[in-house]
Amino acid sequence: MTQLTDIRRARSVSEHLHTVALDLAESDIPVLPLRVGKVPFGNCRTCAGNACGGRPNMKTAGPCYCPAPCHAWAAATTDPDVINSRLWQRAWGQAAAVAYHPGGAGLTVVDLDNADAITWARATLPTTQTVPTTRGEHWLYQGVMPSANAVRPGVDIKSLMQYARWLGPGTGTATALPDIVRALVVKEPRAIRPVAVPVPAPVGGGECPHRTPTYLARGIAMAEQRITEARSGIHAEVYRTFLAVLSTHGRCGCLTDAHITRLFTAAQAKGETARHCTDAWTNARTRLGL
Predict the structure, then answer these.
(1) Which of 84, 52, 83 is nearest to 66 (CA)?
(2) Nearest residue to 154 via CA among 184, 126, 189
(3) Nearest Cα to 24, choosing from 174, 164, 166, 129?
(4) Which residues pair with 131 in a beta bridge?
(5) Which of 12, 50, 91, 104 has the least C-beta neighbours within 10 A?
(6) Of 11-25, 94-108, 117-131, which range is least confident?
(7) Digit-coded pLDDT (tens) for 267-288
(8) Secondary structure of the chain in the HEC alphabet?
(9) Torsion of CA 191, 193, 195, 196, to 10 degrees
(10) pTM of this prediction?
(11) pLDDT mean across residues, the chain
């Protein structure tokens, strides 16, 4: 009898989560099922290790259109046919909660994890839609931004490329995303310690084929500007810029540690680590045979 009761209870929970998901999808809020522990369902065998190339709009964008609830936040959908599909029905049967993709719904969630974080928010942030959580509150704002964890003690930002657990509509009305929240993910410029990188030895007699030192100076300045003005795909942009600099100046021996440090400094100001810079530089040299 107890086993039958447990089965009925599980079925009731599954049907409730499924209904909630459909209601949210009808309101243009992309949804996905969560397992126990507030974690998404793992990728299927075909998509394991992102072998499929990933979902569109992910950092690892690719041609994957897997019908299973794969790829965490990128699986979130508003399509009722997907939510009602056999694969998703199986997932709802094992689900413990409904999650949604805030960025896909045009929202940003300020996740406040404790009483101190809530006190800070009430004293600092504009009033908006508020949803109680098990440990704190979710403050919902209209607008999207990059997601980030631990932007301050007990505070996470969930918007683009992130999911949040659906805990009900809460109270109040979502207001416009304020600049003070956007500023939470902007990192202060750090003092950059120069990284020693081997400079290619001159080819032939070591004579520089460029007309004047101004040509090199202008090239380095343009490379710095290209990195600084990059809006997305920073890893790829840094690599392409390093490749362009080395293809023009890497064989004559005119690059110095000072030039390379300027490029690394610009890249690290955009969030690249010293290791990423070194790897990108090394990969560019390898590709050019330097």
Answers:
(1) 52
(2) 184
(3) 166
(4) 138
(5) 12
(6) 11-25
(7) 888 887 877 888 888 888 877 7
(8) CHHHHHHHHHHHHHHHHHHHHHHHHHCCCCEEEEECCCEECCCCCCCHHHCCCCCCCCCCCCCCCCCCCCCHHHHCECCHHHHCCHHHHHHHHHCCEEEECCHHHCEEEEEECCHHHHHHHHHHCCCCEEEECCCCEEEEEECCCECEEEEECCEEEEEEECCEECCCCCECCCEECCHHHHHHHCCCCCCCCCCCCCCCCCCCCCCCCCCCHHHHHHHHHHHHHHHHCCCCCHHHHHHHHHHHHHHHHCCCCCCCHHHHHHHHHHHHHCCCCHHHHHHHHHHHHHHHCC
(9) 150
(10) 0.64
(11) 82
Which of 44-48, 90-94, 100-104, 214-218 shows the lowest mean pLDDT across its residues? Answer: 214-218
